[in-house]
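Researcher: Structure for this, please.
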Amino acid sequence: MSSTDVDEWLEQTTNPKKHVIAAVRAVVLSDGRIEEAVKYRAPAFLHGGIMAYFHWSAKEFASLIFPRGSEIPGEFETLEGDGLQRMMRFVDVESVEAARDELLDVVDMWCSTR
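Model: Predicted structure, token format:
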């Protein structure tokens, strides 16, 4: 479910990767179970709590942080990190498209365990 707060954030941000953030947003929101809001000064995706949020100050890539990513079952090539938190990085819209299926699988696994 799209949020006007996130629409406004995208209009106002000066982040050079906002077009990449918008592309990730479109993929994640294609799963109808996901809601969004602005949290931690950037768009966040919600289902049974915060699933993921963008690191607002990353400029070289759009960094999607999964604060409880270790709880997402399965093996995912583009989901980086150890400890509790995981991250996906997208340098351009093409990288979003290349990771689209895996991103949707991550979203599905998160939602099906909540």
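Researcher: Any notable elements?
Model: The mean pLDDT is 94. The first strand starts at residue 35 and ends at 39.
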